[in-house]
Amino acid sequence: MIIRSHQVKERGYDFDHNGNILTIFSASNYCDGSNYGAFARWDYMADGPEMTSYTLQDMSPNEQLSFNKQVTLFEDPVYQTLMKKIVGKKSLLKKEFEKADKNQTKHLSPTIWSDIMENILQIDLPWLTLRSKFVREDAQGVLYNTTIEDYALDNTKFQKTHTGIIEDLYMWKDTLMALFNLIDSDHSGFISRDEFSDVLKLIFYGKNVNNDVNQTYIEEIISTMDFNKDGKIDVNEFLESFRIVNMKKPENLHDKPKRKWNRW
Fold this sequence. Notes:
Layout: E1 2-4, E2 13-16, E3 21-24, E4 37-41, E5 50-54, H1 67-75, H2 77-88, H3 90-100, H4 110-121, H5 127-130, E6 136-138, E7 141-143, H6 146-149, H7 165-183, E8 191-192, H8 193-207, H9 215-225, E9 232-233, H10 235-248
Parallel strand pairs: 1-3
Antiparallel strand pairs: 2-3, 4-5, 6-7, 8-9
């Protein structure tokens, strides 16, 4: 039997595929009080697990979240992961929201908003009951623009100051992180000047048939990426450098930069 989690089930658990897969969700009241939590006890030599569902008393619907509870929500890794996926689909979500908002009221019904979230993100969650955690609403309905606008990232390198750039960065973040770890050969958490210089030499000297890339140019690139001038490149500096390149890339893909290589 395979036991999996991270999917809300109304009674806290569910068996699928002829009882071979058990989905169990331990948090009750996750959907504003509509779901049970569950846990499994599997005794030695027993044919299967003994399931127990439970629910805990939720706070009053009118009770405001305390500061500590709000902080806990923003520090929740599941919430952070969902928000990153939302940011990565920001443009497509906005397009679908505006398409559904035929009267241009900046509002949608909760049902339409939740349907769009599920269709675009392809994540099977009870968006309708979870909407208070992701979007604001008033008497007219859901203020769909607040799905993104009210979310602030902790890291100052990832502020929402440039439309579209942050989305690209999130979509490519895993690749950039893998590249950073590859260059950081000693796994120190920083890219030293020597480590980065070695990689640039491999790239430039292998591609540059005119051999006009010298150590001075390599040092110039490294210095540009080393924002705090401490002699090494941390992960934030590395990601920020790619963000800046994205900002400066030509509007017309056929426009060629003046230099042979763009400065980072």
